[in-house]
């Protein structure tokens, strides 16, 4: 390989990495806008989020095509190969994050049709945490900083706990006032979408570990979506111990 | 390249493809068992499904490691390269399908703690359809049959429609009897999990198209999760037109 080729391959890898960073920025903005649309009952903003989802899909197609082109053209090894495989993995996580943001926006349209319900405040609360995790993971990717990636990965547990407590709160609220069942159900799915966005952020953190260290992160993060076990019945404090971890 | 190398690379690709087929079989079995556990309120079966999810995760790790090894060792081109990239993509979709099956099993434990509710029958109904789609997609992968993959991909719309109608039915049921809110909420999430499994099956169908044809499937499948727009209020037939597609 001549210096020229080597240099230009480095530039191509940098370009691929920049595409991921840009896609991550758009995904972050989509999550932020979707969460704002819910809190403000802003139908215009929600519609913009749903429309902008195509941009994220287009990024994924471009990144996949470029990654495959580089694999074929450059036949990379070691770190270079991991860079390209990581780009394929991260772009698919970001694409899913975009889908969840779009679904949150979609549901906010249904919420805006009915009177606001108190537990809606939990959406911005979860949104702030998930956006902080996404920001740290994307910074960790740019800086190739494994420690920062793992720190963000660990915060996902806070998000799961927040989701689990919200799940119980919303269920109780629905039982107290069945007229809130429709908005509360959309709230539950929005919260679930935010929890799933956090899971995809942790996938990206794991990919960063693989990218930099060269081996998969094998520690099992305790997955604590206690809500899947939740049994809430009207005035049932003695049920509370039935919620939580397996 | 000597014939020997060529032959053994072909064998390695076949082995990778076989791993995907096995992983698909396990994922299919997990979905089937999870759906059965719900219908039969079978806590033992549900627990088995949750434990077996590790097997699927292990398949994904093995497939990723093998794919990366082949990329580095064989520096493949064209169809061979697409085989390996497709294995990476499909293994991650199958891993997600396994997670959803495990979550359905997890929620069935909560359902088994409370009296059965009528809409539970919708889970096996959706389950049969999603299992049929998964079977067709996996057959299409084994046979490298694009037409079969696209046919399965199109059936995902039936699944979305089934999910949307179930969503309204369950919401109405909750409103009629708020004591059913907890089990009905778990039902909604189980149905959503089945709908998501269908989405991952369509991703696999799209990957098969890329694998065989060499270009991404660019037709946009009309995404019809009308439930995200659903507004259901007690005795509100005039709201029904507010549900459905955007």
UniProtKB/TrEMBL annotation, chains A, B:
Instruction: Tell me the Gene3D superfamilies matching this sequence.
Output: Phosphate transport system protein phou homolog 2, domain 2
Can you say where in the cell this protein is located?
Cytoplasm
Signal peptide stretch: none
The record's keywords, sorted A to Z, are:
Cytoplasm, Phosphate transport, Transport
Q: Where is this region: Disordered?
A: 221-246
Asked if the record carries the keyword tRNA processing, the reply is no
Q: Which domain of life is it from?
A: Bacteria
The cross-references to InterPro entries, in alphabetical order and at most eight, read: PhoU (IPR028366), PhoU-like_sf (IPR038078), PhoU_dom (IPR026022)
Residue ranges annotated for the PhoU domain, each copy included = 20-107, 124-207
Cytoplasm among the record's keywords? Answer: yes
Q: How does it assemble?
A: Homodimer.
Database matches in NCBIfam families: phoU_full
- Similarity comment: family membership: Belongs to the PhoU family.
Q: What does this protein do?
A: Plays a role in the regulation of phosphate uptake.
Q: Kindly provide the name given to this protein in its UniProt entry.
A: Phosphate-specific transport system accessory protein PhoU
Its source organism is Azospirillum rugosum
